[in-house]
Amino acid sequence: MQQVDTVIIGAGMAGVTCARLLTDAGQRVVVLEARDRVGGRMLTERSPGFPVDLGASWIHGIDDSPLWELVQTLRIPTLEYTVGSFQAGGRPMMHFDGEGRPISAAASARWIDDVASVDHALHAEIARSSPGDTYLDVTERALDASGLDAERIDEVREFFRHRVEEQCGAWIGDLDAHGLDEDAIDGDEVIFPRGYDEIPARLAAGLDVRFAHEVSRVDRDADGVTVTTAHGVFTGASAVVTVPLGVLKAGDIAFTPPLPTDVSGPIERLGMGVFNKIFLQFPERFWPDDSYLIRALGEAGERWHSWYDVSAISGLPTLLTFAAGPLGRHMQTLTDDEVVADVLLALRALYGDAVRQPIAHWVTRWGLDPHARGSYSHLALGSSHDDHDALAGPVDGILHFAGEATWGAEPATVGAAYYSGHRAAERVLGRPVDLTAAAAAVIARERAR
């Protein structure tokens, strides 16, 4: 049995942030990680000779962002790549109609205007929604009142459905009417040409991280906490649990005594979505050089609908598409070859024989990952924004929770994980902690080596 001041469960962004701050404050901290690496749902594949971010990819809005300040302090290079909450326009995009035919600039502009108009009405429908209303309910009301013809309604309806899938990893009928209330982007968004997981890796340098230490139970009493793994037992005055919501929902960690309803209720009510990535690298480019995005509208985009040009990372022609919600769960049951073939079928419906066989591909399956059990949290029907912050605890003043699902202002983001790790550290210490000091300390240690 090993005794420390604080036991942290999980070495994702929340866990390493909290551990870094507590360690730098003089605490004895151990981080127990089920995987063989840090980062959690930040996972960068580097074996091709360039980074492929299979997990988190973006900082969603750099204005007034402490996460962006951390990146700048660590001098990590970024590329501006703003997706704007699954935006309809605002970037050079190739749009195709429901039959897979390219549409004119005028037709694209009309569709973008349709989305904006119905979206404006949707905000009013959400504001007057009743408990029990889903996002599907309020979007249908807004569409019914739009006055658009059936074909244009179908195209906007598909856009709303896909927006929920990509932002929440869920079916539109499972999302609460207020499920996208916090879906706002302030400033540019950026991606990472060296890979996103450089951030947690550098924060974790020098920490006591125990890999392959999957936690099975957490006991608490008047003396503190006892955390059990297959490789030993760890005790501390406090513990911070940073595992994904999907792991908590599955009951993979037993808590004794049981968690109070203030925390167990949010775990039960909040949803855990599935959002998977498919990268396709081609021998040659078949889409326009200035096209940021390829998007199929209506029936042509019913399954695979949006392809993002991420060639700048590798310097090779590469498209990224997503499978989220029901499609994301379905594609996890298929082989890589089956998934790639299905995506190519949709692309060839737009570009024909110009779409050659990819020279490389990467496919994720976050819903099947036993240490994640999904991609990120969302506001499922029956939950509320308060549930995110209530999930953080603390319980009996000694058991804390952190991670993207515990940060109500910006759930489902790396920023949320970062900020929640900071909050947990402050609660453990019982005093404010300068978040910027963590990055400065990392730089100082790196220079000293």
State the low-pLDDT regions, or none. Answer: none
Number of helices: 14
Radius of gyration: 22 Å
Q: Give the overall shape, derived from the CA principal axes.
A: globular
Q: CATH homologous superfamily of the domain at 2-42 and 195-269 and 383-448 - what is it?
A: FAD/NAD(P)-binding domain
Helix content: 25-40%
Can you tell me the CATH class of the domain at 2-42 and 195-269 and 383-448? Alpha Beta
> What distance separates the N and C termini?
32 Å
CATH architecture field of the domain at 2-42 and 195-269 and 383-448: 3-Layer(bba) Sandwich
Q: How much of the sequence is in beta strands? A: 15-25%
Tell me how many strands there are.
20
- CATH level-3 fold name of the domain at 2-42 and 195-269 and 383-448: FAD/NAD(P)-binding domain
Mean pLDDT: 95
The description of the largest β-sheet is: 8 strands, mixed
GO molecular function, one term: oxidoreductase activity
Pfam families: Amino_oxidase (PF01593)
Domain Amine oxidase: 13-429
InterPro entries: Amino_oxidase (IPR002937), FAD/NAD-bd_sf (IPR036188), Flavin_monoamine_oxidase (IPR050281)
